[in-house]
Task: structure prediction
Amino acid sequence: MEGITINIATDFGRDLGGRWKEYGPFSGEEFYNSILENKFLEAQKDNKKLVIQMDGTNGYPSSFLDQSFGELARRHGVNLVSDIIVFESKVFTWVVQYIKDKIWQTTK
Amino acid sequence: MLTISIFISIFLIFYMKNIVYVWISIISLVIIILIYRTKLYNINLPTSCILEEHTISEMICCIQKIITTKRRKIQLNMSSVKELSNGAFMVIMAQAEKAYNKGKTIFIKLPDNTPKRIKEVIYGTNQKIYHDYVKLTKNNDKLNDLYKSHKLVDIAQILPNIDKHLNKLGIKNYYELNTLITELLGNAVEHGIKGLNINWWMLHLFEKKSIRFVFVDMGIGIIKSYKTSEALYSSAIFESGKDLSDIELLIYSLKGLLGSSTGKPNRGRGMPQILYMVEKKLISNFVLTTNTVTLRYIDNHFKIQTHPNFVGTYYSWTVDKDNYNKWKELQ
Result:
């Protein structure tokens, strides 16, 4: 799909951490600050989709997801974020549903 | 003997008219107290040192003594121990470490005829243990050093070791389990920072066709954590006027009905994830012990037990190929 792409495993890390940067490497906060928000704003400015490729990591702690994708929705609005972001995954379909149903839904 | 000495000294102080005798009494009392505090305090560990339903109360009482005694030298006497589980021994060690960091010296008495199985548990054969203890100050100077070195939770150091054991069972890329472990560690660190004391232990142990995991967070416990947080009082459950028992607090927190004890929104998802994995049989033989309650998942429901207060949280579960296959089916 055309758009800006983030492959979490290769662009950020394979063994994801928890919520805050201070608690350990590859946290949700670090992912949000170093990659996610910048790419999101770039996609918004260029009127493109932001494709998030989820496969290749060792799993997604809920605290990581909340502090990255949840924080994005809290700061920029769930509707805008869900319009721009497209998830691609064969392995983590349940994680994608979790972000949409549990994190974004409760942020509205 | 100490009590009698104190009473005699108080009697002498108040009834002696000679100031010299009063001073002798006071100095004698101080010496007696110092001798008492430095005398070795023997704690006899029970015959069954396992955290099962019929033994847990006795175990908790024993390990409480490690912290509550005023004595400075403690001996954990294992002469009577006939059964010792890896999880129970790890809890003993975690409690002993807590006591050590309060200035106590801990000894273990292990008789020569200690069974081989018990020695294997004590010397850590066939198991891998990870743990961290960080005592923080209010100005967080040590924490800043840890932040810079990212040493607080380096999951990348832990997961590969666990994967080696899982691979022996034909389990590969069990992502749900990885996220569970990361959540538990992250929670222990986060709440530990709040309490100025990070203290967690984890072990995994290869058991024929399964792997047993035990995780211990030596904080204040989940129930106490909620009782002392504002989160509880702003939850819908509390606002409905319901007065919650310890059992209800724990069950509701598992169901995600109380949010996080931090009080912040969109938090507190770790416990519901555990419940999901337990109910979908993605993990087996689940036991959760915290404060005054233990939950054991048996025959598709939680068996509840109350007991003396365990200051901390203990999780135990197993993973085998069946759990993994169930998870694969759900994908």
User: Anything to note?
Assistant: The mean pLDDT of chain A is 90. The radius of gyration of chain A is 13 Å.
